[in-house]
Design a protein that fits this description.
By secondary structure, the protein is mostly helical. The chain is about 70% helix and about 0% strand. The protein is globular, with a radius of gyration of 16 Å. The structure holds fe (ii) ion (2 copies).
């Protein structure tokens, strides 16, 4: 049985590979990017709907604060998945994801803190649910002018207090 964090860490690598494949040529490769985009939205959904709720009440204020910071970054990442991509946007996504995944992985990462709260049996049960999570069928790309296309702007907007 696989712990939920092992599943999610392997998914990070899979998604990084898809993004690299999408951005490997002179223009964005649409099929690889579509697979990356759907896979990343599914991954964020697993974290937000399965993992975070399972640990939020048992991990104390420090973990809750780290989950809140990741949640804000999920909003920023998702906003960069709205516009039709070009290579520059793929670069912005790669940079934002590298920083984000680094906060989740590793001995001091949020996933390991979640494992401590869950314990082995609950983590393996959650891992099975994560594996079984259905594919996501994302909405078409938006085409409004002025859609956010940089990580810095996406983070600034996601961190802005509501109504500001
Ligand atoms: Fe995440
Ligand atoms: Fe993740």
């Amino acid at each position: 049985m696989e712990r939920v964090s092992d599943y999610l860490i392997a998914d990070h690598a899979r998604l990084r590979g898809l993004l690299a494949a999408a951005a490997a040529g002179a223009a964005v490769e649409p099929e690889a990017f579509a697979a990356f985009r759907a896979g990343l939205l599914r991954h964020i959904g697993i974290e937000e709907k399965l993992l975070f709720p399972a640990v939020r009440d048992g991990g104390g204020a420090a973990l809750a604060e780290r989950l809140r910071a990741l949640h804000v970054e999920h909003a920023a990442i998702s906003s960069l998945l709205v516009p039709a991509p070009d290579l520059a946007l793929c670069g912005e996504l790669a940079g934002l994801l590298a920083a984000h995944d680094a906060q989740e992985e590793g001995p001091d990462g949020v996933y390991e803190a979640c494992e401590v709260v869950l314990g082995a049996a609950a983590s393996e049960a959650l891992g099975a649910r994560a594996r079984a999570a259905p594919a996501v069928r994302p909405a078409p790309h938006g085409d409004r002018p002025g859609l956010t296309r940089t990580a810095a702007e996406a983070l600034r907007l996601a961190r802005r207090p509501r109504g500001a």
